[in-house]
């Protein structure tokens, strides 16, 4: 948009929604700057950041003084404010509703279950807390249920989660499903339909996908080297 200043994104790329936001900004060539917030150092709890977002979470978007939190809201705002291809968040009500349907489901399914596996297998041990085998097995079972639903409902008759082209739903989902890879665990390896979907998403996003996920690959190398 002419005369509009670059948006500022506050991100930690170990965060799945932060990666989704960075990919969207880069892929769609939306002018932006990035402020890194290191969650592991507690930078989200500083007075300056807390003033910006009292919830002390990332990502946060600053669009010329308009402050927005929550990745779902941020991505939808950018998709409707900037001149990006319609397939990301379609204007047609029925197609847009499909994206909203997935993103409403996403938070307590794909995001919650993939995150729990990552926390129990990577973060807790890093903090000196041993993984509870029973809880971990339940987390894997819960995640399997979510993967079944992705295959049998969302990808039942279409190449992407909400239709024939990539949308915000695919972007949010793929970043979550990449997270367990930090431990070397590819949760999609025995699921051909989801593997094909991930390949389509990666291909659609080109270089921005691997750039944003470089931190995941680095952690995987360190984690698997210890095994």
TrEMBL record:
One GO-annotated biological process of the protein: glutathione metabolic process
Cellular component, GO annotation: cytoplasm
Record bears the keyword Cytoplasm: yes
Localization in the cell: Cytoplasm
GO molecular function: glutathione transferase activity
Keyword field: Cytoplasm, Transferase
Protein EC: 2.5.1.18
Domain of life: Eukaryota
Main location: cytoplasm
GST C-terminal domain ranges (all copies): 92-223
Quaternary organization: Homodimer.
Family, as annotated: Belongs to the GST superfamily. Theta family.
Name of the protein described by the UniProt record: glutathione transferase
Provenance organism: Sinocyclocheilus rhinocerous
Name of the coding gene: gstt2
């Amino acid at each position: 948009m002419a005369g509009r200043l670059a948006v500022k994104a506050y991100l930690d790329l170990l965060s799945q929604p932060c990666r989704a936001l960075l990919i969207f900004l880069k892929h769609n060539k939306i002018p932006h700057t990035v402020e890194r917030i290191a969650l592991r150092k507690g930078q989200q709890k500083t007075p300056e950041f807390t003033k910006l977002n009292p919830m002390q979470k990332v990502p946060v978007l600053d669009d010329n003084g308009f402050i927005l939190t929550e990745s779902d809201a941020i991505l939808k705002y950018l998709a409707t404010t900037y001149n990006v291809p319609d397939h990301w968040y379609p204007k047609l009500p029925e197609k847009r509703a499909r994206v909203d349907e997935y993103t409403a489901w996403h938070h307590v399914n794909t995001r919650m279950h993939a995150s729990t596996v990552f926390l129990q297998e990577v973060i807790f041990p890093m903090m000196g807390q041993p993984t509870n085998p029973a809880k971990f097995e339940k987390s894997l079972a819960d995640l399997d249920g979510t993967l079944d639903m992705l295959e049998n409902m969302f990808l039942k008759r279409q190449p992407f989660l909400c239709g024939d082209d990539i949308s915000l739903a695919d972007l949010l989902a793929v970043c979550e499903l990449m997270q367990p890879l930090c431990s070397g665990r590819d949760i999609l390896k025995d699921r051909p339909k989801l593997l094909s979907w991930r390949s389509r998403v990666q291909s659609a996003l080109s270089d921005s996908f691997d750039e944003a996920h470089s931190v995941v690959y680095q952690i995987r190398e360190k984690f698997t080297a210890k095994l």
